[in-house]
Every structure is written in structure tokens, then in C-alpha cells.
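Suppose a colleague, Dr. K., hands you the sequence of a protein chain of 332 amino acids and asks what its three-dimensional shape might be. Before reaching for any lab equipment, you can write down a predicted structure in C-alpha cell form. Begin with the sequence itself:
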Amino acid sequence: MEVTKSPAFLASRQYAKPTYLKALFSLGHTLILFVVTIGLMFVTLEINYGLTLLLSLVASALYLRLFMIGHDCGHGSYLPKKWQNSLLGSFIGVLTGTPFRYWAKQHAKHHATTGNLDKRGDGDVITKTAEEFNESGWFAQICYRFYRNPWFMLLVSAPVHFVLLQRIPLGDQMKTREGWISVMGTNVGICVYYGTLIAIFGLVPFLMVYVPLLMLSSAGAVWLFYVQHQFEDAYWNRKDTWTYDQATLTGSSFYDLPRWLHWATGNIGYHHIHHLNPKVPGYQLPDCFDANPVLQEARYLSVRKSLGTANLALWDEDAQRLISFKENSNRA
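The predicted structure, expressed as C-alpha cells, is then:
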């Protein structure tokens, strides 16, 4: 990969320096707000469940922000020392139900293969080409339609992935000792964490607080994974013409969110910079973007425009863009 020679990568290098002050401040106030909000959710169960559900929106944003801090730890970019990232990432993994080492290894494959049509499936939302879809059988087409339905993806696939599939090592990691230790160690931590809450508040109150929290936060996480790479003029190429540099800058969007949503999502909306140089911690991404015009030449995606990407499902290799099922049918 020749990425280190690109002007964009060189522009990002000075921001790939984690600092204790920013990292600990970001972590500290996020954890405090999360604990307070969860506490208020349990308190409001005795007052009005509508208030509890309203607070679940805040708790979900904080949960998502914690997940993104753990994500940076997985890249070794949140804190200066490797062991510090590993320790913090494992702790956050218990809070967010994400086995740290197991997930980090999967996510590293996503970074190495994003936009490569010949290496799909590692940490991605599965994307078929129009030709692959049209040549598949009727049952496979129905399954793929279900999978790519935005409501199914956010309300079924998302919680299943984070709540159930993260509880066992899958794929190549099923054969590794490290994969099993990461997943089962996290599972033990979750049992202690959830078990303590259930012992204090009871099973039903726990479910009333954590079911909406997990549903909303998992949907938010999957939407971010989806929208950052699944827009009309995204980047997908076969391995003989695929380049890392192009995949990062044209295959990853700049999600132009309001400032408060950038905060809630750990600045992952600056996704093109993150993919270009994963060593830039989330708390440095806005400064990196603002200081470098070359990094502002990105695929801008507004909130309104992003909603229109939900129906895109197939990559048209001839037109080099994502199309909807309807558009594909009209071409047949």
C-alpha cells in the first residue's frame, strides 16, 4: 500500500498522537454521564415509563460514544501506550457487549479490505453486485432483500449481531485460543455487570431499562457502519484495480452531522480520515479535518441525504454506483 506517500495521509500524521488530557477528559465525562443517565432511568421507572424511554435516547448516545472510544482503543489510538488501550478497550467491551480483541481483529480486516469486491464480508454490511443478485436463485434473492431492508437491518440484524453473535467467536477466530478468551472473558464480565444490576433492581426493571438501550444503540452503530460506505457514488473495485488510498478517500464518507451528533458518535463521521489513518484518535479528527484542505475534499453526506441511501442495495459494476432493487428491476 502506497498510502504513506499520499498528501492526505501526510497531512493527517501530526494528529496521530494520542494525549492523556483529551483522552481522559473524553472518557471521564462520558462515563459519568452514562452512569447518571442509567441511574435516572431506573429511578423514573417508578414515575413514568415514558420518561425512562426518553432518557434511553440519551443513554444510547452515551453507549454509542463509549463504543467508539473502545473502537479507538482497538486501533491503539486512544491512549499513548498499547497496554493502556488494551485494558481500557476490554473494560469498555464489557459495558458495550463487545469482546475487545475479537472485535478489533475483525475490524482490522474491514479496514484492510473495504471497497474490495473480491474481499467482502469482513466487518461490512454485505453488499452484492447487481449481476450476482440477478444470477442467484429466488430464495437467495428473498434472503438478501430481507437482509438489506433498512428496518430489518436496524431492528433485527443490529441487536442480533451485538447481543447474540458477539457472544461466540465466529469464522477463523473460532479456531483460535485468543478469540475464545476474548469472547468468553467478556461474557463473564457481562454476567457480573448485568447480574449486579439485576440483583439490585430486579430482572423486570433491568429489562425495561436495557432492552430499549440495546435496541437503540445497536441500531445506531449499524447505521453508522452502513452509511459511511453505502452511498451512491461509493468505491468498489476488483482486487487488480483496488487501491487503499482510493478506498479510504472516495469509499468512505464525511458524514456532515450537527456538532452534538459528532460528539455522540465519537467523531466517527470524519470517516474518510479515520480510514486513511486509523491512528488518529476520534478526539483529534475535527482538528485534523479543519486544518487540512486536502482532507476536506471528501464525499460529503448530510443527514437528509444519508436517509436516501437506505434503499441502495446493489453495486452496479458497469455504472460504478450503488442502485436500489427497484432500479435493478427496471433494467431487467
